[in-house]
Amino acid sequence: MLDVIRAAGTISRVGLINATGFTGATISTLVRKLIDEGLVVETGRAESTGGKRRVLLQLNHTSRYAVGVHLDHAGITYVLTNLGGSVVARLARAGAGAEDPSTVVARMAAEVSALIDGVDVERDRVLGLGLVSPAMRQWEGYPLDRALEQATGLPVVLDNDATAAALGEHWSGGIGGTATSAALYMGTGIGAGLVINGITYRGTSGNAGEIGHVCVDANGPVCWCGGRGCVEAVAGPAAVVASALAHPELRLELKGVSVASDFAAVSRAARRGESAALELLERSARYVAVAARTLANLMDLEVLVLTGPGFAIAGAVYLPVVREELERAFFSRAAHPVDVRLSRSASTAPAIGAAALVLQSELVPLNEGLRLPENLAAAEPAPLPLP
Amino acid sequence: MLDVIRAAGTISRVGLINATGFTGATISTLVRKLIDEGLVVETGRAESTGGKRRVLLQLNHTSRYAVGVHLDHAGITYVLTNLGGSVVARLARAGAGAEDPSTVVARMAAEVSALIDGVDVERDRVLGLGLVSPAMRQWEGYPLDRALEQATGLPVVLDNDATAAALGEHWSGGIGGTATSAALYMGTGIGAGLVINGITYRGTSGNAGEIGHVCVDANGPVCWCGGRGCVEAVAGPAAVVASALAHPELRLELKGVSVASDFAAVSRAARRGESAALELLERSARYVAVAARTLANLMDLEVLVLTGPGFAIAGAVYLPVVREELERAFFSRAAHPVDVRLSRSASTAPAIGAAALVLQSELVPLNEGLRLPENLAAAEPAPLPLP
User: Are residues A299 and B216, on separate chains, in Cβ contact within 8 Å?
Assistant: First the structure.
C-alpha cells in the first residue's frame, strides 16, 4: 500500500482500489490506519473527471527517516533521508583506514548523532540504519552490524555496494517506480545492482549482478574468480592501473595506496588531456560497454545508471561509449531503447541506497523479494507491515 | 492459492495460512470455493504433530487441462497436460513446411481434436491452447492466434520457444516451485528462458534471456544483431554448420534444408565417432559454457536446464562442458552450485511449457509477472482468478 502511494506520488482511494485490487472497505480501513500513524496525509482534491472530485493521498515524507552509511577505507558517507527518499542531511568524514573496528564504530555512532541532530529530527522517527561497505581485511569476523546497533540504538541492515547503489539510483534518480533498471557500479571492482519492477533482485544467494565476472573474451586472461576473460580482469580499475604502471609517464602519477586512488589518478590525467591515460580509459570503456550490452540483452533493461566512485570521476569517458554500444547493438532496440545515464550522485548513491533499504523494509516488508507466497503474505491486510 | 497448493503437492489449511498470510476465515472460504469448483480435493490427513491430524488438500489434477502446441517448419508437437502439469497425451505431426497458413491451421484444429478425444477428456475442461513457434517468413502478418482460436474454439496464448521451454522444464522437470532457473534453448539459434522464483521473467519488452547475443569475444565477428562476438555468431548451430561446410568430409553430410537439420547431421556424425564433427561441437560447447557462466553470474542461478532440439541431439557433448565451466568458475560456487541438467523432454519442452502458460494463467493470473501492485491484486480474495 505505502509503496503504491510512494510510487504514485499522489493517489485517490479509488486509485488505490484499482492499483491494489483491495475492496473499497479494505482501502478505507487501511488508509485510516496509515493516516492515524502519520504515514499518509490527505493533500487536496484531484481534477474532476465528471463526478465528485476525489481526495488525494500522499506519503507524509517527514513522518519517518532512515540513515544510510557507506563505510570505506577512504571515507565514510552518511545521509539522512525521509520517507519519500529525499536526502535531508549528509556528512562526509574520514574513512576507516587502518583503525581498529571498535574505534571506528564509536566514531560512527557520534557522527550519526551529529547527522540526525543537525536537522532537528526526533530520534524516534528514525527507522533504522542501512550500511554498505566493501570487504575490508581487518574487519573480517567483526560483528559490525551488532556493534553498530548497540552503539547507535538503531536497527542495522547490511548490504553490498552495487545493490544499494541500484536501489539508491532507483529512489533518488527519478527512475519510474516499476521500471527494470540496473546500476553499473565501479569502485575497486565492477558490480551491478538489479532492480526488477522496482524491487531489488538478489538471486539465489544474494550474489546476482556479478557483472565484473561477465566474460568479454573467452580466450582472455584468467581472473581471480576462476573464469577467463572476465570484464573486471580485462578492463576493470585494477587492469587500468596495471596498464598505467607499465607506462613510463603515467606510472609517476600513481601512489600505490589503493586501486581506487590510482584509478582516480589515471582519470585526472585523462581529464588534463594526457592521451595515454585517455586511451587506457577508452579501452576499458569499450569492454565495459560490451558487458553492459550483455546485461541489457539478458535482462531486457529499461534504464542503466553508471554509478560509484569510478564512474564519478571517469564517467564522462565511459558514458558515450556505453551509450553508443547500446544504441548500435542492444538486441531489443527496435522495441525500446536503454536509457543510459551517469548518476548525478555517484559518490553518495550507495549511502542513499542503504537508507532506501531501510525505508523499503517499511514500505514493503524486507526479504519479501519476489517470492510469490510472501508477496501474497505481504498483501494480507491483517498484520500491517507497520511499526 | 492454487499455485501454492500446486507447489506444495499436498498442504493443510494451516499450511496455507502460513504460506499465504491469509486469515483462517479467508482460507476456509477460499478452500470451500475451490472444492466446490472441483479444482481442489481433500486427500487424507497429515501425520500427527501432537494435536489433531490435519486434513490435506491437493489440486484435483484431472479437473482442468490445457493444450500445448509447438509449431515448427519440421514438425508440430502437441501435448495435453492436466492441472498438475503432467502430460496425459501427446502427438507429433508433420511441420508447417511451406504450406499455406490457413491450411495448416485447419489441420491443427483437427489434430487438437484428435489429441483431446483420444483420451476422452471433456472439451469444457480444457482451459485453452498455448502456442509457441519461431518466426516463419510466410506467416508474417497472419493472425495465427485469432485464426487458431476460431478453428479450435479455445482461447489461445502465444509465447516464444525459450520462455515456454523454461516454464515447461520448471513444471515438468521437478524443479522446486520457487527456484530461480533458466532454460538454455538451442534450436536454430540460442535463447534462454528465465524463471525467477517460479514465475517467468520477460523483461521490459518480452525479450529477456537473449543469451544468443551475450558477447563471448569483444573482438569477434559481427553478428546480425549489430553486436560483435555474440555466442550465437561465434558458436551457435549456424556457426557449427558453416564450419562443417568448410570441412571436406563433413560437408557431404549436410543437405542444406535447414540449420537445424544440418546441425543434427553434424551431431549424428559426432555420435558415430567422427572426430572432426566432435571437435566442432566441443568448440561450440566451450563458448556456450562461457555464456552460461555469464548468465549464471548475473542471475545467481540455482538450476540451468539444457533443452530444445539442439540439445536433444547434441546434449551429451554440451552437458559436461557446461557443468565443468560452472563448477570451476561460477562466481557464487562457494555459496551454492548451479544444478546443470539435460532436459529429459528437450524436444517436447516448448509444447509442455505452452500448456503450462495456460495453466499458470489459471493458477496465477496471466501477465501478473512480477509487478508488485498486480501481485497485490492477485492476492485479493474478492475476484477469484477462476473461470
Answer: no
Q: Residues near B115 by Cβ (< 8 Å), separated by ≥ 6?
A: B67, B78, B79, B80, B89, B90, B91
Sheet with B181-186: list strands edge to edge. B199-201, B190-196, B181-186, B303-307, B339-342
Q: pLDDT, tens digit, for every residue of B263-303?
A: 999 999 999 999 999 999 999 999 999 999 999 999 999 99
Phi and psi at B304, nearest 5°, equal: -130, 120
ipTM of the predicted structure?
0.81
User: Are the C-beta atoms of A133 and A74 separated by less than 8 Å?
Assistant: no
Max Cα-Cα span within chain B: 75
Distance CA B68, CA B75 (A): 14
CB contact under 8 A, B332 and A202: no
Q: Which of B23, B300, B378 has its CB closest to that of A205?
A: B300
**Max CA pair span of chain A:** 76
* Chain B hits for A284, Cβ within 8 Å: none
| Domains, in order of start, for chain A | 2-59 (1.10.10.10), 64-159+349-379 (3.30.420.40), 174-342 (3.30.420.40)
Q: Say yes or no for a CB contact (<8 Å) between A297 and B216.
A: no
| Set of chain A residues whose Cβ sits within 8 Å of the Cβ of B300 | 202-210
Chain A residues with CB-CB distance to B372 below 8 A: 3-4, 178, 197-199, 364, 375
